[in-house]
Amino acid sequence: MSTSTNQRINGTRLWSTLMAMAEIGATPKGGVKRLTLTEVDKAGRQRFTEWCEALGLKVRVDAIGNMFARRDGRDPTRKPVLLGSHLDSQPTGGKFDGALGVIAGLEVMRTLNDLGITTEAPIELVNWTDEEGSRFGHSLMGSGVWAGVYTQDKVYGLKDLDGVTVGEALDSIGYKGEHPAKPFPADAYFELHIEQGPFLEREGKQIGIVTGAQAQVWYDAVITGQDAHAGTTPPSTRKDALVAAARVIAKVDEMMRARGDDGRGTVGRLQVFPNSCNVVPGEVRFSIEFRHPDGAEIEGIAKSFPAEVKALVEESGCSLELKELFVIAAQPFDKECVDLVRQAAARLGYPAREIISGAGHDAVYVARLIPTAMIFTPCKDGLSHNEAESILPEEAEVGCQVLFEAVVARANR
Ligand code: HGY
Ligand code: MN
Ligand code: MN
Ligand code: MN
Asked: Which residue ranges does the record assign to the Peptidase M20 dimerisation domain (predicted)?
């Protein structure tokens, strides 16, 4: 039984639930701060659990805090179709990055209940732990452990800037679940997400048929120079770690621009020590990340960048420790699942276009194990990882309707 287009999700309910989630960690500038594994994240998780259990979904939590809310199907031997995203946010995040995919998944479950539909295969709604990576420095953490990219022990030991480990944080909010954080048999995964870029809005498209995601490499850098008196230390004897870092930052920007419109190079986090006005900084710790749709570009950077940047830092009389945190290969999504998204958008008459994701998503790691596809909706001015992130209620509704059609078609095939 495939879904006919008269089975409509409830856009008003979807929007009010999105706004209810946005109240958890709401910031004065209209965004959210739901940093992973904090009390605010816990509040979002608890609200999510209440909503799922009110629908009769069975919620389980794995050892890394990933949450799975299961709706049984007619045939218990069928592998579940997964859908979802993440509820954690950036420190100055928007209301919709991640939350749209989780709350739209909830709306799919609510609509199936309203219509009294039991799909052939079970369906599981997922809230992945720490997609953003902004607290512990590893993005796609929960899906990465589930997909076997990271070991649970390695992730438990990751520390935030206050020295709190992931393991401690999971314990502190009571979300170190008893289920093993590893893959279980699943049929497919669908993730609805805002595009976080300008192309759908610019071209007047309502749906992005996401065919894959670009490659990335992330580094942690520590430059060591020498603390010195700002007034008495002449240029010839300075070992200024911040000047050396500035040269590295300029090089990252130059490497990005050398790759044209597809180039991406960012230093997003930087700490200066001792961070005192009249001390030449002796140490700087910062993040570096590069991305590109062509995996070979990232492989090239990963090969050549460490030696080039080491020489640059040494010219400033400082030393560099550069730690490659991870490389994410360019990830194509599953053709059959992508076609389900394409057919749903066409059936519903929504203008759509194929697109490669510039952002990383949990779907990137999940796609390594099971057939996966993503659905994008436009967002205003392509802005995200910014409190001003915004979408229209009808954009959320259109994305959710396509998600509903694709998931139900897959679960009933
Ligand atoms: O960085 C990313 O792409 C993700 O949105 N955290
Ligand atoms: Mn996201
Ligand atoms: Mn994000
Ligand atoms: Mn993301």
From this structure: 216-312
Q: Which pLDDT score is estimated for 2?
A: 47
**Mean predicted confidence (pLDDT) in 140-156:** 96
Are 40 and 147 contained in the same domain?
yes
Q: Strand, coil or helix: what is 94?
A: coil
Q: In terms of domains, do 263 and 375 share one?
A: no
Name the residue range of residue 249's domain.
215-328
For residue 352, pLDDT over 60 is answered with yes
The per-residue pLDDT for range 221-235, each reduced to its tens digit, is: 999 999 999 999 999
Residues 164-195 as b or e (16 or more Cβ within 10 Å = b) = bebbebbeebebbbeeebeeeebbbbbbbbbb
DSSP secondary structure code for residue 38 in this structure: S
Q: Are residues 320 and 355 in the same domain?
A: no
Tell me which ligand sits closest to the C-alpha of residue 134: 1
Side-chain half-sphere CA neighbours of 400 within 13 A: 33
CA of 142 to the centre of ligand 3 (A): 14
Say how many C-beta atoms besides its own lie within 10 A of residue 97's C-beta. 26
For residue 35, how far is its CA from the centre of ligand 4 (angstroms)? 14
From residue 24, alpha-carbon distances to 48, 70, 108 in Å are: 11, 24, 22
Q: Which of 75, 80, 186, 59 lies closest to 123, judged by CA?
A: 80
pLDDT of residue 1: 43
| Best mutation site among 132, 135, 289 for ligand 1 pocket (most ligand atoms within 8 Å of CB) | 132
Q: Could you give the C-alpha distances from 242 to 96, 222, 285, in angstroms and in order?
A: 35, 11, 9
Complex confidence, ipTM: 0.89
Q: How far is the CA of 85 from the centre of ligand 3 (A)?
A: 10
What are the pLDDT digits (tens) for 326-346?
Answer: 999 999 999 999 999 999 999
Looking at the structure, do residues 278 and 147 belong to the same domain, yes or no? no
Rg (CA), the chain: 22
Given 295, 328, 361, which residue is the final one in a domain?
328
Q: How many CA atoms lie within 13 A of 347 on its CB side?
A: 19
